[in-house]
Design brief:
- The protein contains 17 helices and 25 strands.
- By secondary structure, the chain is an alpha/beta fold.
- The protein has three domains: 238 residues, Aminohydrolase, N-terminal nucleophile (Ntn) domain (Glutamine Phosphoribosylpyrophosphate, subunit 1, domain 1, 4-Layer Sandwich), CATH 3.60.20; 192 residues, Rossmann fold, CATH 3.40.50; 141 residues, Rossmann fold, CATH 3.40.50.
- The strands form four sheets. The chain has an eight-stranded antiparallel β-sheet with strand order 3-2-4-1-10-9-11-15, covered by helices on one side. It has a seven-stranded antiparallel β-sheet with strand order 5-6-7-8-12-13-14. The protein has a five-stranded parallel β-sheet with strand order 17-16-18-19-20, with helices on both faces.
- Strand 23, helix 16 and strand 24 form a beta-alpha-beta unit.
- The chain is globular.
- It starts with a strand and ends in a 17-residue tail after the last helix.
- 58% of the residues are buried.
- The mean pLDDT is 95.
- The protein binds 6-O-phosphono-alpha-D-glucopyranose.
- 6-O-phosphono-alpha-D-glucopyranose (G6P) binds next to helix 8.
- The site of 6-O-phosphono-alpha-D-glucopyranose has 15 residues, from helix 8.
């Protein structure tokens, strides 16, 4: 939530910052702003709403200068208006911030007593006044920021400029992500990689508590006042990964990228003899496992439900699936045989991190599945079980698509790896599973061919205000995900239910105006799933049926049918997810909503 960028070099800072913010807008789009230091000193432009409003403002009132900071906001403290937009300023100092300063009220009172005049309702403004007051005491910018952050409680990634220091800026982080990017005669910081990739692929993932002093010709990193060396990493992604590449929306591009994304998830991890290698995950540490808790939020939680079945069925280990926000406050009855695994696309969801941190501090082994390299969750687990990267590439659309399918496949790999490690699967069986997984991208390509038919179905599907999504077995989580996708981006009300629960309440809702999206797998539960649909039809409810090829006769119980390739049962959740994503996408596109940036949402939820 919230994205920040900082730039120093020779190009127009305002342009670099706005381009960077474009790639970070998924983190929030309530307001945006930049502050630039040029010949005229420090100046800023801010605008309520999306980045395009700021761009318009900058066209009318440009800012020149080659040093600046920028921000895109998801409002926490204070309404989403221009006054609360970052950068916040105090005298010669301006600050952008991602995170929450928990002791801001106390600092605000103290600073006001010292004469500071506050303009916004934000927690961030205290940082600007605090740094400015320390500068007034004669400290240079770096020393002032270093002293200021010692007073801050909570989470922050900040970038600070001061017009008295036109050739440098300072950035620091604690519990919010911040990347330092090292260019030629230019250096940047940003909340996420896509913002810096057009300038350089050499980056440093700043560590907790690091502070960076950034100049055109170099950077110095400090940790607790001491200069430290941090290894830079060369990133292989091309900047094009974070562009729309001819698609109307990022979401559609990301839906179509999934066969490639799954190939990347699998790449280098499947052995000839049924073995699974997960480079940063230590199977050697799972000995004695008796129970696994999968902890996640949102779409990642749906992936966890699919993962439970995979791990239980393949590795024979009992699994519980937990919402991180509930789990973190529960009493944890754990023993030596417990493992806790977090699943988080962004790797920075506050509740997932807190839940893992909590159990880790009790001595429980923790691991994670994440898409973001060196993310907070990856770091937290790196000295325990480790991390499984999904390798989906940057996901920009706020509604998660390729992150979900790559999470499910990562869980499949985990299940196979656990089963091998514990000797619960034969090499032959494992080889067969691996063969199926290798074939998965091809089946996904075939499934995506349904996009055109689903687009044609969108005008019909857009006529209703409420939806029920039904699935059984491993298609129940997919029904939950389908309902979530539809409500997130089309704003139609949708609920996911296990088909068997239908008669216990939801059936009362069925009318000609209350449609059901029914998922019918080619599995042992097929006949039961069909009976549930018959019950809906008998009550006049419209049905959009998703079933596998060979089930054409089921057209009799449906108003519309989408057929997907017949695949091994364990792969059905991945395949059936695709029509769910396409249905939500085409309905939202038909209704004309803002598909990539739906109202009120942010891609990563870094506050409770
Ligand atoms: C937000 C996003 C969802 C995501 C959830 C969990 O709600 O909008 O798409 O599933 O957070 O995020 P994570 O990064 O932890 O997977």
């Amino acid at each position: 939530m919230c994205g920040i960028v900082g730039y120093i070099g020779s190009e127009s800072a305002a342009e670099v910052l706005v381009d960077g913010l474009k790639t970070l807008e998924y983190r929030g789009y309530d307001s945006a702003g930049v502050a630039v230091i040029g010949a005229q000193g420090l100046d800023r432009r801010r605008a309520e709403g999306k980045l395009k409003n700021l761009s318009k403002r900058l066209r009318a009132e440009p800012l020149s200068g080659s040093l600046g900071i920028g921000h895109t906001r998801w409002a926490t403290h204070g309404r989403p208006n221009e006054t609360n937009a970052h950068p916040h300023r105090s005298g010669s100092v301006a600050v952008v911030h991602n995170g929450i300063i928990e002791n801001y009220a106390e600092l605000r009172t103290e600073l006001q007593a010292g004469g500071a005049v506050f303009h916004s309702e934000t927690d961030t403004e205290v940082v600007a006044h605090l740094v400015a007051s320390l500068r007034d005491q004669g400290m240079d910018l770096k020393t002032a920021v270093e002293s200021a952050i010692k007073r801050l409680e909570g989470a922050y990634a900040i970038a600070v400029v001061d017009e008295d220091f036109p050739d440098e800026f300072i950035a620091a982080r604690l519990a919010s992500p911040l990347i330092l990017a090292l260019g030629e005669g230019e250096n940047l910081v940003a909340s996420d990689l896509p913002a810096v990739l057009p300038y350089t692929r050499d980056v440093v993932f700043l560590e907790e508590g690091d502070l960076a002093h950034i100049r055109r010709d170099g950077v110095t990193i400090y940790h607790q006042g001491e200069v430290v060396e941090r290894q830079s990493k060369h990133i292989k992604w091309s900047p094009a990964a974070a562009q729309k590449g001819g698609y109307k929306h990022f979401m559609l591009k990301e839906i179509f990228e999934q066969p490639r994304a799954i190939s990347d998830t699998l790449s280098g991890r499947l052995g000839q003899n049924g073995e699974v290698h997960l480079e940063h995950f230590d199977f050697g540490r799972v000995e004695g496992v008796e129970h696994i808790s999968l902890v996640a939020c949102g779409t990642s939680w749906h992936a966890a439900l699919v993962g439970r079945d995979l791990i239980e069925n393949i590795a024979g280990i009992p699994v519980s699936v937990e919402y991180a926000h509930e789990y973190r406050y529960r009493r944890h009855l754990m023993g030596a045989g417990d493992l806790v695994l977090g699943i988080s696309q962004s790797g920075e969801t506050a509740d997932t991190l807190a839940a893992l941190g909590e159990v880790k501090s009790q001595g429980v082994r923790v691991g994670c599945i994440t898409n973001v390299l060196e993310s907070a969750v990856a770091r937290l687990c790196s000295d325990s079980l480790g991390v499984i990267y999904t390798h989906a590439g940057p996901e920009i659309g706020v509604a998660s698509t390729k992150a979900f399918t790559t999470q499910m496949v990562s869980l499949h790999l985990l299940a196979l790896g656990l089963a091998r490690q514990l000797g619960r699967i034969s090499a032959e069986r494992s080889k067969a599973e691996i063969e199926d997984l290798r074939h998965l991208p091809h089946w996904m390509e075939q499934t995506l061919e349904a996009s055109k038919d689903i687009a044609e179905l969108a005008p019909f599907a857009s006529e209703f205000d409420n939806y029920l999504f039904l699935g059984r077995g491993t298609l129940f989580p997919v029904a939950l995900e389908g309902a979530l996708k539809l409500k997130e981006i089309s704003y139609l009300h949708a609920e996911g239910y296990a088909s068997g629960e239908m008669k216990h309440g939801p059936i009362a809702l069925i009318t000609e105006q209350f449609p059901t999206v029914a998922l019918v797998g080619d599995d042992a539960l097929k006949a039961k799933a069909v009976s549930n649909i018959e019950e809906i039809k008998a009550r006049g409810g419209p049905v959009i049926l998703v079933a596998s090829e060979g089930s054409e006769e089921l057209a009799r119980v449906a108003d519309k049918v989408v057929l997907v390739p017949k695949v091994p049962e364990r792969l059905q959740p991945v395949i059936y997810s695709l029509p769910m994503q396409l249905l939500a996408y085409h309905v939202a596109d038909h209704l004309g909503t803002d598909v990539d940036q739906p109202r009120n949402l942010a891609k990563s939820v870094t506050v409770e």
